[in-house]
Amino acid sequence: MPLSSTSLSEWTDPDVLPAAEAAALLAGAPWTRLATLGDSVAEGVREPVPGYRDLSWADRVEEALRAVTPGLAALNLGRRDRVAAQVAAEQLGPALAFGPDLAIIAAGGNDMLRPHFDADEVRRELTSIVSTLRATGADVVTIGLFDLTSAGLGPVRYREVMSARTRLLNDIAAEVAAAHDACHVTTPYDHPTAADPAIYSADRLHLNARGHAFAAANTVRTLATRYLASE
């Protein structure tokens, strides 16, 4: 069960984009092949929440894009527990074989949770993934992580370190994206919902279905602003 209950539903939640609105924001999107790479965030690990469709953020982005392009082909390669080097080694090849024109990457979170966080290694692996996909002509998006410590989660004695690592990882992902003319979905640190423990699953690590709906809205808006606003 979620950490706390909510009387909201996705039809009344102001932080959730209704499917029709998400599709409208992505009207004119050129993409026909979507690949998602990464760890449990990419895979969409979550718990259901009453009043919300049991969909991951990636499912919702795919749904909105498919409403625009009914023939959209999508491949989600995300697998839980993978560090960035494993994402590069195991998923980049299949992604390239799939031939996406849009690739979304969520990786580095498991590196961050290790006793020693090698930020330089994560930067190298993300650079390899992003640059290789960009070289094919694909648009690439990196995903920022929520700082779960802002919701009062995580062991108290490690919260300061976890928060600093989360923000460093997000900065790295944003810098890698900028260096390769890719797009980064910025984490809404200051948004009240980002600090609400009710968007997390009982494992106190992954978002639940409500959290995924919130993350999807943030991702769709970023895609629309970055790629479609001037068209």
UniProtKB/TrEMBL annotation:
Domain annotation SGNH hydrolase-type esterase: ranges: 37-213
UniProt signal peptide: none
Alphabetical list of CDD domains matching this protein: SGNH_hydrolase_like_1
Xref: InterPro entries: GDSL_Rv0518-like, SGNH_hydro, SGNH_hydro_sf
Keywords per UniProt: Hydrolase
GO molecular function, one term: hydrolase activity
Protein name: SGNH/GDSL hydrolase family protein
Organism, as annotated: Actinomadura decatromicini
Gene3D superfamilies from the UniProt entry: SGNH hydrolase (3.40.50.1110)
